[in-house]
């Protein structure tokens, strides 16, 4: 018996038009009506997920920030695993020695070593796929 359906956002729950298709919403509501819990699991921050939850009146838990936060149906943080600031600084120091772009998602926003143009190009690339 299925007890839980968990879905990623990009390319799974959200379609090419950058919205949740009607069919997905209907399937979620039907599953919930039959006692199956639904959850969203995504790398996105909760602030990026919340508008969809409100728009479609989804009653679901969310695992966000690539698993760093677990939020209940009210959006309250139930569990979280954050990297301590000191450890994050150590990691960043190592990463700065590489030719990699650094992107950090936090409960307080998004930070990157990219220029605005590089960040925008990366966002456009992700949306096209």
From TrEMBL:
Q: Which GO terms describe its cellular component?
A: cytosol
Q: Which GO terms describe its molecular function?
A: magnesium ion binding; phosphatase activity
InterPro entries, alphabetized: HAD-like_sf (IPR036412), HAD-SF_hydro_IIB (IPR006379), HAD_sf (IPR023214)
Q: Out of the domains of life, which is the source?
A: Bacteria
Annotated Pfam families: Hydrolase_3 (PF08282)
Q: What is the official name of this protein in its record?
A: HAD-IIB family hydrolase
Give the organism the record lists.
Answer: Clostridium diolis
